[in-house]
Write a structure and sequence with these properties.
Two copies of one chain form a homodimer. By secondary structure, chain A is mainly alpha-helical. In chain A, 53% of the residues lie in helices and 0% in strands. Chain A contains eight helices and no strands. Chain B binds a DNA duplex (30 and 30 nucleotides) through loops.
DNA sequence: CAGCTATATTGGACAGCGTACAGTTAACGA
DNA sequence: TCGTTAACTGTACGCTGTCCAATATAGCTG
């Protein structure tokens, strides 16, 4: 796959004689093209493009498929170029994780039924997580996301719990239980690994019912504590 | 993928360990010594030694600290030598995970209170997991263990559920919920990452109460379904 | 418009990883 | 005693994340 260089002309690196190559006017990042750029030239990379392509690569090729080098290849860029836009691979993944959480639907702040509000948050989170199966193990390995979206979600949950009269450490407990349960369930529902552990794979509908049942039990317990 | 083909590497599946044959008593594994061995000489490595050192290395230096090369270094052996005893790194970790589960305490088969029986299993699992914090993310990433110990545990859970009149797909659901909840909770209870997400770290006692509360809610719901 | 500075990008490199291949030798059964 | 088998080493390949110095471009200042 590599060494597509074979270029008729300059395979030389430090050559440097005039010979200005045709400069791409609007550039636009090439999909599969190899970068024919000399050191100083811009590629028009943006942080958003990096994140988007990384996300795409991750959901497409899995966690092991996400490497800085492959990412750079897709962006038509040298691997190091990425480091001008993200601090490193772990930072990249962190941002990715938080980005996904933006899609979680939260109830209106005025909803006066905390149980249904929390159900909505958690089921939406569950669905969002299932939309990105390859991210789920990462949430787990990192014990949840820590970015602004994650933080905001946590606040909404607190608000709902407060409406149910649950505050302080009890609220922390309840929130933790709900988060753990939801992420964990998404993890087990995710069919990445050879999940033929013991029986036929459950359908996603079955799993979802499964999830909501357990969620209802938890919420029931939480509310009855208040 | 590990393939692990090539005739010689057979690595003996775990089962029934026959008696340990005479080992080179001196030698043993050198702590910091450098291997002064020429190609054909034996190092007295055993599968158990490999697993034990790997376990030690993992809990000591974390997941990123566990590398075949560092493991070999500790064993006083060339990296490839390990492949005579385990099929590859992933197999090694799989065995590690299952090994730990052997410590989970299960109720007597005759216990006639499924709720307390399941509580016992899950709390014991929780404690065992917390004893090996650095393994927990691995359980999650792999969605639980799949070795014989894990399988046996699953069977015991089924037996308890059956005593409560829960069988078939309902039993599968319930078991999945319980496993997810337990592993997930252990994950969030594990303080590996900078867990200063929002508030002071809960004490382990708080977390344990937290865990048992949610567990009780789940079991309550499960049993009320039967 | 010229000049300066900040920075996006490249080639190259480093250290480390998992593991395959091909030898060399010790242990073991015949 | 010999032949086979398994453990072990040396070496090497292709991969990884990331740093460094050089370079050309973009944007700002004048």
């Amino acid at each position: 796959m590599e060494t597509a260089r074979t270029g008729p002309t300059h395979a030389a690196q430090r050559d440097t004689d005039v010979e200005t190559p045709p400069r791409p006017p609007h550039n636009a990042r090439a999909a599969g093209e190899q970068a024919a750029r000399t050191p100083g030239q811009r590629a028009g990379l943006t942080r958003e493009a990096v994140l988007a392509t990384a996300h795409e690569l991750l959901t497409e090729r899995g966690l092991d498929g996400l490497s800085m080098r492959e990412l750079a290849r897709r962006l038509g860029v040298a691997p190091n170029a990425i480091y001008s836009h993200v601090a490193g691979k772990t930072a990249l993944v962190d941002d990715l994780l938080d980005e996904v959480l933006a899609a979680v639907e939260t109830p209106d702040a005025e909803t006066n039924d905390p149980t249904s509000g929390l159900t909505r948050i958690m089921t939406s989170t569950y669905r969002v997580l299932l939309d990105h199966p390859d991210l789920v193990p990462l949430y787990l390995a990192r014990q949840g996301a820590r970015g602004p979206n994650a933080q905001a979600l946590g606040e909404v949950m607190f608000a709902q719990l407060a409406q149910a009269g649950i505050t302080g450490s009890a609220a922390h407990e309840a929130r933790r239980v709900l988060i753990v349960y939801t992420i964990g369930f998404a993890a087990l529902a995710t069919p990445t690994a050879s999940d033929a552990s013991d029986d036929r794979p459950l359908s996603s509908a079955e799993l979802f019912g499964n999830f909501t049942a357990g969620l209802a039990w938890l919420l029931n317990g939480i509310m009855s504590d208040a």
